[in-house]
Amino acid sequence: MKLGICTSIENSALMKSQGWDFVEENCQNILQGLLNDDEWTGDERASRSALPVRSANVLLPGSLKVTGPDFEEDALATYLNRVGERAKSIGIQTIVFGSGGSRNVPDGFDRSLAQSQIKDFCTALAIVGSANGITFVVEHLRRQECNIINTVGEAMTYVLATNHAALRCLVDTYHLWSENEDVRTVRDAMPWIRHVHLADLEVRVAPGLSGKSDYRPIFSILREGNYDGLISVEASQFDIEKDGERVLDFVRTQWQNA
């Protein structure tokens, strides 16, 4: 089990000094799928990181739509191929498909058609992932951020429909708790869980900082399922310099006591 933070590589030296294992960067900063190869600077960026960049989130910019009438298969294919090849070249192993702005179903658009569009997109992810040795993980997002794939259970419908080793599921504690989803869905999904995001439910602070979130029930399920992958802190309020060591100690203790 490796512990990292969703942040920029500029924080990597500080993270390394505190004992973190890896950085999870933003795809738009490091893979830059909208740019041509001669414009891409992510490889140079990754080379400056004091820690390995093992994962990346925010797969898609809001301008690229996965659902709705503006779905453009060719544009998405070009984008994904760039992302896959670049991720492979710099050692990124896991890419998160959350991207609520891209997959949000437009008002009045047929929901069953939107679901079909997402299934097609997940198939494309699996193909690109397989070609480049990358696992794409489907992230559930709370309803305030997106109107589709709001739970682990719903994310699993796309993972199972795709049925490919390069497409798996992510568990995010913040979204799980926001939706009041039963942790038993995590147990059911364990064979397909390949990535984890952590944040306290209270205003999405880093684990332990609110003093109100208990990760042990989820960690217990992960440990029972022999989870040995990446776990990233994804918090909107996290002063790494001030609280990084404290948060790391808290997560490790919760894991050991689960």
Which helices and strands appear, and what pairs or packs with what?
Elements (H helix, E strand, L loop, with lengths): L1 E5 L5 H7 L3 E5 H4 L11 H6 L5 E5 L15 H18 L3 E4 L2 H4 L7 H22 L2 E4 L13 H11 L4 E6 H6 L5 H6 L3 E6 L17 H9 L5 E4 L6 H17 L2
Parallel strand pairs: 1-2, 1-8, 2-3, 3-4, 4-5, 5-6, 6-7, 7-8
Helix pairs in contact: 4-6, 6-7
Notable features of this structure?
258 residues, TIM Barrel, 8 strands, globular, 11 helices, single chain, eight-stranded parallel beta barrel, alpha/beta
Short description:
This protein has 258 residues and is of the alpha/beta class. The protein is 43% helix and 15% strand.
Q: Could you describe the 3D structure shown?
A:
The chain is α/β, with parallel strands linked by helices. It has a single domain, classed as TIM Barrel (Alpha-Beta Barrel), CATH 3.20.20.150. 43% of the residues lie in helices and 15% in strands. The protein has helices spanning 12-18, 27-30, 42-47, 73-90, 100-103, 111-132, 152-162, 173-178, 184-189, 216-224, 240-256; strands at 2-6, 22-26, 53-57, 94-97, 135-138, 167-172, 193-198, 230-233. Helix 4 packs parallel to helix 6 and helix 6 packs across helix 7 (152-162). The two termini are 14 Å apart. The mean pLDDT is 97.
Overall mean pLDDT score?
97
Fraction in helix: 40-55%
Count of strand segments = 8
Named CATH architecture? Alpha-Beta Barrel
Q: What series of H and E elements makes up the topology?
A: EHEHHEHEHHEHEHHEHEH
What radius of gyration results from the CA coordinates?
17 Å
**Fourth-level CATH superfamily:** Divalent-metal-dependent TIM barrel enzymes
Count of separate structural domains: 1
Quote the CATH topology: TIM Barrel
Low-confidence stretches: none
Amino-to-carboxy terminus distance: 14 Å
Structural class: alpha/beta
Largest sheet descriptor: 8 strands, parallel, barrel
What's the overall geometry?
A: globular
Strand arrangement, major sheet = 1-2-3-4-5-6-7-8
